[in-house]
Design brief:
- By secondary structure, the chain is mainly beta.
- It has four helices and 21 strands.
- It has a twelve-stranded antiparallel β-barrel.
């Protein structure tokens, strides 16, 4: 194991080690939290314990220490450092130096460049998330933390909806806030059926009901999909697409007013782009990337391999402004932290 002094020197000369980023790495930090704890205890003058501020910037999940002007970050399985005094503010890849300084912090692995994973989309489907009794909570935030999005769900027993029986009922609360002010708060019930195919799992989606508390308290919306949507995201091969032609019959009810029903049609193209390493505030994961094209609007999402965690979502904030949401470490499945 290298000494703390040797590691400090490596940080100070980080620009000279940047060339290591050009080679394929055989190690990567196994735990972002373990690396943070070791850095703060071993190098407190560089990374003062308890003085860091967490955030996201593009693909980087970082911790910045304003009192000393230093920051470390993780992205795609690599460890980065930026220092106003030692790296002239440049982001330097110090994965090799970190793993040499303390091999216990790292694991042997193959780090794939973005988009090169060729596994099927079914790798990222987790059947537990549709099993009766499962509970979960997903917490996301934007890079600047101005937008917060949380959903807490439970899978209920077989249910009926729109004349269909034996459906999976997902009961969720949804809370969205912007700059500390709640902009949306609702209780949602969604109805699906799981179909197994040789290509992978397919969800038949029949519709949903939602009762809103904000921005319009008491409003109730029932959406019936006829025919049911065949959601084939997790049955796709690399770069395969399918078109979802959705017909929605929506009934909106306001307290004391007649119900209003309308029918809308929407076409969306879903494409599976393969697997890549993704770093979010909760850690680094191998994930399946999906793209959704609706007219000229293109959004994307990354779902963790094996666990089905919705890691990153890109879209807009409802007002047409682009926003990217990253899952937080407060999220859990059946009470187990992610």
């Amino acid at each position: 194991m290298r000494s703390t002094t040797r590691c400090a020197a490596a940080l100070a000369l980080g620009a000279m080690l940047a060339a290591t980023a050009q080679a394929e790495l055989t190690v990567r930090p196994a735990s972002r939290d373990a690396a943070r704890q070791w850095l703060e205890s071993s190098l407190p003058s560089f990374f003062p314990p308890g003085a860091g501020q967490d955030g996201m910037a593009g693909p980087y999940a970082y911790r910045f220490y304003p009192s000393v002007g230093n920051a470390f970050a993780f992205s795609e399985g690599r460890f980065m450092v930026a220092s106003q005094s030692h790296t002239a503010g440049q982001i330097v890849d110090l994965t090799a130096a970190l793993c040499q300084a303390n091999a216990a912090l790292c694991e042997n692995t193959t780090v794939l460049p973005p988009g090169t994973g060729t596994g099927a989309a079914s790798d990222c489907f987790n059947p537990v998330l549709l099993q009766q009794g499962t509970t979960y909570r997903w917490d996301w935030q934007s890079a600047d933390a101005a937008v917060q999005f949380s959903t807490e769900g439970r899978i209920n027993g077989p249910a009926s909806f729109a004349g269909q029986t034996g459906l999976i009922e997902t009961e969720r609360t949804v809370l969205v806030s912007k700059s500390g002010t709640t902009s949306f708060n609702a209780r949602v019930l969604e109805y699906d059926k799981l179909e197994t195919t040789p290509q992978g799992p397919v969800l038949l989606r029949y519709g949903s009901t939602a009762r809103m508390d904000a921005p319009i308290a008491g409003m109730r919306t029932t959406m019936v999909l006829n025919p049911a949507n065949r959601v084939r995201d997790f049955a796709l091969a690399l770069n395969e697409s399918y078109t979802l032609n959705e017909v929605r019959q929506t009934t909106i009810e306001f307290p004391g007013l007649p119900a209003q029903t309308s029918t809308t049609r929407e076409t969306q193209i879903i494409t599976y782009r393969g697997q890549e390493s993704v770093t979010v505030p909760a850690g680094t994961y191998m994930a399946c990337k999906f793209e959704w094209t609706n007219g000229t609007r293109v959004s994307a999402g990354w779902t963790a391999k094996g666990t089905g965690l919705p890691l990153v979502i890109t879209g807009d904030d409802g007002a047409g402004n682009p926003v990217t949401l990253y899952i937080k470490s407060s999220s859990h499945i059946n009470g187990h932290p992610i």
